Model the fold of this input.
Amino acid sequence: MELCHECNSDVIEKQSNIGIKIFACIVLLFIPYGILICWVPFLFPPKYYCKQCGHIMDEPKYVDWREFEKKKAEIKKEE
Done:
């Protein structure tokens, strides 16, 4: 399960920007020796966006779902 670093929410969206990467690849094909470097835009990792707090991160925090349920139960006990 993926969690946000800021708010520990599990409402995370992966933003891959595949359209921009394909466009960059096509543009690179038209420069000299572009066929050798047109794969470079696909090396960039996707960004993750938290829908609850708006935080943008490179890698979310990964936890086991059982650990997440324990955290949720602890928060309910505190309230």
About this structure: The longest strand covers residues 12-15. Residues 65-78 form the longest helix (14 residues). Residues 2-78 form one domain.
